[in-house]
Amino acid sequence: MLTRRRFKQTKTLNERLADEAIRCRAEARALAPGRRREMLLRRARQDETAMQIDAWLRSPGLRAPT
To answer: Which domain of life is it from (predicted)?
Structure first.
């Protein structure tokens, strides 16, 4: 039977998303306008949106539906 390869994350989700967004924006800055640059900028925006959603979900004001 195959076993799953698992490892413990050393950074939080927010840290990983922030690092990825910064990396994508830096890489996009170095490229000329084009498809690859737009994909990197889109990925950075998605990462930032994911950070906002994660913060919203973890906020103390959020309550379970009743």
So the answer is: Bacteria
